[in-house]
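Minutes, project check-in

Agenda point 3 was the complex the collaborators sent over. CS summarized: two entities, 579 residues total, and the question is how they sit relative to each other. Sequences were read into the notes so everyone works from the same version.
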Amino acid sequence: MKHDDIIALAHLARININSDMVDDVTDNINNILSLVDQLQQADTDGVEPMSHPLDASQRLRADEVTEKDQRDSLQSVSPAVESGLFLVPQVIE
Amino acid sequence: MEWETVIGLEVHVQLATQTKIFSGASTRYGAEPNTQACAIDLAMPGTLPVANEEAFRLATMFGLAINADIGKRSVFERKNYFYPDLPKGYQTTQLDEPIVGAGSVDITLDDGSTKSIRIHHAHLEEDAGKSLHEGDFEQGMSGIDLNRAGTPLIEIVSEPDMSNAAEAVAFAKKLHSLVTALGICDGEMSQGSMRFDVNISVRLKGEEKLGTRTETKNLNSFKFMEEAIAMEVERQIDVLEDGGTITQETRLYNGDTKTARAMRSKEEANDYRYFPCPDLLPVIIDDEYIDQIRQQLPELPAARCQRFVEEYSLSEYDANILSDNTHTANFFEETVAITKDAKLSANWIMGELSARLNADEIAISDCPINPTQLANLIERIKDNSISNKIAKQVFDSLWKGEGESADAIIEAKGLKQVSDTGALEGMVDEVISNSGAQVDNYRKADPDKRPKMLGYFVGQVMKASKGQANPKMINEILLKKLNELL
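CS then shared the predicted structure for the full assembly.
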């Protein structure tokens, strides 16, 4: 990982890293990645990838409406609301 | 230089469930903003998703209908990106282990031949909310409605098997007809129930390597899709012929202004950092579950078309048009059940009814005339109560809601065909005595030419009867009377 990779990754994750910290973060991440490299030396042939630690499957629910309209209470924590809409700084692509 | 176009489609289909894929909030269209967005849809801290069984059932139905392998184990992943209409900061979707594997769909081309379009896979995912940029909001603000957030979708990903806009549109229409026949989607494109992303590239004819592709996103009508493809193909060829290169990018097509533009830069767009969603365990379904769904599959358009040919002796062409849309097919069968006349019913539905629906831009599911009413009208044609011409007038009145039934309109407006011999003879006599010259010509004419000349007299009688005379009877009476004068 180079400086530029860390800056790009931080942007994607919307994490603000001060320019004087980029060196440290890069070193830290590279240390972690070398640990991952070490792990990857383990022979995993024939081992099924594990996406979850639990040996169980997802329970499914019936398709029935169980949620009532709680807009007023849910929007009470929102900084800006208008005509039932949440207001956010404009993002247009 | 001769160019070749390569097109692949990604189709988002909203599943017709009552509730969201991961919450018990309603998915009903058109509700007040954010009244159907619960704490889970809003990504409130501490909430966890609970998967909706119906979404899996509907996705499985689609998989079986395209002869795909069903993923007995399907895994959800997080696709990470920041956008205000995605409160969690990731979309829960599937990547390596989707619910529907590879399958195929046959399309019919203009020349009548068929082509098989391969489906790479179809996966389950959640829809995002809606951003509203136009409104009387505070300066620099957008409104967010999260009612749609969490609505279950299947994203159907095709192989790049289409080579022009017509094939892409035929494929899109076929999928529309399939998902509505299955009842897994309401098919309302204007409400966003089906949205198409089109991947387009061009290459020199004979070249094996694919050209760089662009993706035109979120097309929600067949017409826009056709226009957008034509425009993009032309743009790419222009760029390449001028010695330029195609940039891999996402584009937006505006159907109102007929313009397209690049959307977001590629380097940011494609770094979604997928990983398995820790909040959702793998979903396991078994053969018994799949078989049960297989047995409940409704008759699909292709099978229905075949049946229409066999059961109603319709032409392949007519059967295809009538079976393509489930609502049209149902309308037809309900009409025939009453009239017992498949050909006449088919003609009315494909002719007058379709023309009127198109002109008024109404879907057949919202047709102001129901099958019982149309059948009643057709029966009155069959029993000679009204002529075809008057029938169109009655149809128009039915359409405008001027009466409950064809019978009621015929009665109220006095449109019943005149089949009373005495009255018709009177009209014929009148016409003959007022048409001395034509009668003279008729008498002098070669007998072979006389049948053609009869048309004039028929027309005059029809006019005198305001279109209500029984044409078959007029013909007979006219012939008899004119021959008496020979």
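Noted in discussion: Chain A touches chain B at residues 8, 12, 14, 51-52, 54, 56-67, 69-71, 74-75, 80, 82-93 (CB under 8 Å).
Follow-up: revisit at the next meeting once the mutant set is ready.
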